[in-house]
Each structure stands twice: as C-alpha cells, then as structure tokens.
C-alpha cells in the first residue's frame, strides 16, 4: 500500500508541475498560437490537430468538427468552424492563464516577493566630547532612502550612570505624526516613533528628531540603536528597510560647566523646545517620562527557509517577466 501511495504522490506533483509550466506557457505564447493556428492549418491542414479530436475516442463525435472520429482519418480539423472554435479555445486558455499568473504575482507580492531592499541607515555623529553637566544634541538623520518611507521607530540605549536624556525634539522633523515619545533614564532607554501619511517621505536624507543628552559623570560612553528600531517602506507591505544600527561614542570631560552656563543652557533649550516645534505636527503621545517601557519590541515577519525563498523568488521573476512583457506590448 505504501508504494502505490508514493507513486500517486509523485504523479500529483508531476501533474502540478506540468500544469504550472503549461499555464505560464499559454500566458506568454497562447495569443500567438491562437492567431497562427488557422494560418498553420491553411498550409499544412493534416499536420494541425483539433483539440477535441485529440481527446475523443474512436467513434465519438467531435463537438468542434461535428463529425465522428475515425483514427484512419487523423485528428486534424475538418472544417472552418472547427478552426475558429479551436483558435477561440486557445485564446480562452491564454486569457485564463494570464489571469492566474496575475493572481499568483499578487499573492507572492503579499508574501514579500520581491523584497524591498534594505538601504536606510540612521546617521548620527559618531563621536564628540562635552563637559560634565553640559547639554548636547544628537540629531537622528535618516539616509539612504531609495523607496518612500512612512513610519519610523528610533529606539536607543545608553548608560544611565553616565548620561541622561533631557528631551527628544521634533522641531525639524520631516515626519508630521508622532505616536510615541518615551524616555526611561533609569533603564537607559528612549524611543521616538512616528511618520507621515501616503505617499510618505522620499529624499536623500531627512532629520527625524533630536535627542538631548546631559553628561552625569566623566568618561567615555556609548549610545546605540536597538534592534527594535524600524524604518518602514511605503511599499504596500510595510517592509522594514533599516539595514544597520548606528553607534556613537561620547567623551564626557571632567571639567564642569558653571552655574551661569547651565542656566543659559536651560533657558536656550526650553526656548527651542517650546517655540520652534512645528504647529502642523500631530502628537498622539502624552508629554511625560514613561518608566517601565517595553524594550525590544520587534515586528519581524516569519522566516522561511532558503529553499522556499529561492523558489518564491523564481516564481516571482517568471510572473514579473510575463506581466511586463504584455505591458510593454500594449503600451506601444
């Protein structure tokens, strides 16, 4: 019982593969076959087969030729009516095959094929030195945008013993909707997330926000972007196209700033935060320090094996070739 089951299984697999090849063949060459069919019959009629005569048994009536099939007469069309119906049937199969290829292409697109390339990086000053107690900015510049983007989540981590985040400012941001601004100076974590509606943002680069730090103790400290950071493409699938995570090193000098300088800093920073923020921005978060933020929120799609990924990519390339082939023909 096992052997016949295995044989039937491979028969089904073979049938599916043959059907897939036939559908994609008709999607490309079917219309040309339908047009050339009567021409071929005109020159070599007995070498042109009728589709129904081919599958009918001896003595059965062909619905296209309206004649009884006789093996000694061959399977070629017997009249013009049969030629027209055979051509129409080939054309019908071609249109149906093209529709199936189109649906297959849409399904593969929803599954993430072809994948939108990861080209975007967060650009921040890689190093700097500041005095103890000095406020200093870190601009988050989004660069390498090859596809329009419409959602960004910047998650950073830092050593809370060495530095603290004073505030996150969005005055010069290209985004106009912000849904989260979280600062946790106990855990050493900060998040800014937001974006903009369709068609998104497209340009060489753009400022997403500015994080203001203050040095607490002298020494070298690092600020890193977490893997939960996201830059989502406006590609209909929300693909995360962030390719790498930036790191900055800051040297906090032991020299303290004076009380007068500190007061000037506070006034300048407060003035900047209160007056320069764009009035067209929509903020959906509460202006407060959020403690106990969930770190490492990641939106990752299920991973598929390399074999399936290669197979899906192959299917997608074939479908894209067929669809672009007919698009070029009808666009002329």
Task: Walk me through this protein's architecture.
- The protein has 332 residues and is of the alpha+beta class.
- The chain has two domains: 2-112 and 307-331, no CATH class; 121-283, Immunoglobulin-like, CATH 2.60.40.680.
- Helix content is 36%, strand content 27%.
- It has helices at 2-43, 51-55, 80-110, 259-275, 306-331; strands at 61-62, 67-68, 121-123, 127-132, 135-143, 149-158, 163-169, 177-184, 189-195, 205-215, 219-225, 230-233, 247-256, 282-283.
- Strands 4, 6, 8, 9, 11, 12, 13 and 14 form an eight-stranded mixed sheet that branches.
- A hairpin with a 4-residue loop joins strand 1 and strand 2.
- The relative contact order is 0.14.
- Residues 289-304 have low confidence and may be disordered.
The mean pLDDT is 83
The whole-angstrom Rg is 33 Å
Number of strands: 14
Low-confidence stretches: 289-304
The best one-word shape is rod-shaped
Helix content: 25-40%
Q: Helix- and strand-based class? A: alpha+beta
CATH class of the largest domain: Mainly Beta
The oligomerization state is: single chain
Share in β-strands:
25-35%
Note the main sheet: 8 strands, mixed
Task: Quote the CATH topology of the largest domain.
Answer: Immunoglobulin-like
Number of contiguous helices: 5
The count of domains is 2
Distance between the termini: 58 Å
**Helix and strand run:** HHEEHEEEEEEEEEEEHEH
């Amino acid at each position: 019982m096992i052997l016949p089951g295995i044989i039937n299984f491979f028969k089904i697999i073979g049938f599916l593969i043959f059907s897939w090849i036939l559908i994609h063949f008709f999607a490309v060459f079917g219309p040309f076959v339908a047009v050339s069919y009567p021409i071929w019959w005109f020159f070599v009629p007995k070498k042109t087969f009728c589709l129904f005569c081919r599958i009918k048994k001896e003595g059965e009536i062909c619905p296209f030729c309206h004649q009884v099939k006789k093996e000694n007469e061959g399977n070629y069309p017997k009249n013009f009516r049969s030629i027209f119906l055979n051509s129409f049937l080939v054309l019908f199969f071609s249109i149906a095959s093209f529709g199936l290829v189109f649906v297959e292409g849409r399904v593969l697109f929803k599954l993430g094929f072809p994948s939108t390339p990861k080209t975007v990086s967060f650009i921040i000053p890689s190093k700097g030195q500041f005095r103890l107690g000095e406020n200093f900015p870190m601009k988050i510049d989004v660069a390498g945008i090859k596809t329009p983007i419409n959602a960004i989540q910047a998650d950073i981590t830092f050593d809370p013993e060495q530095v603290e985040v004073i505030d996150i400012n969005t005055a010069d941001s290209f985004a106009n909707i912000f849904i989260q601004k979280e600062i946790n100076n106990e855990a050493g974590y900060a998040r800014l997330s937001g974006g903009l509606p369709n068609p998104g943002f497209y340009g060489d680069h753009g400022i997403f926000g500015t994080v203001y730090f203050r040095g607490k103790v002298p020494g070298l400290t690092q600020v890193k972007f977490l893997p939960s950071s996201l830059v989502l493409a406006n590609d209909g699938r929300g693909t995360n196209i962030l390719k790498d995570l930036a790191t900055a090193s800051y040297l906090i000098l032991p020299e303290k700033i004076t009380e007068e300088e500190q007061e000037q800093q506070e006034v300048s920073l407060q003035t900047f935060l209160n007056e320069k923020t764009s009035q067209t921005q929509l903020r959906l978060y509460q202006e407060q320090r959020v403690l106990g933020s969930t770190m490492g929120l990641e939106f990752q799609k299920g991973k598929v094996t390399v074999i399936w990924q290669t197979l899906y990519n192959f299917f997608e390339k074939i479908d894209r070739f067929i669809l672009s082939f007919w698009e070029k023909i009808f666009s002329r």
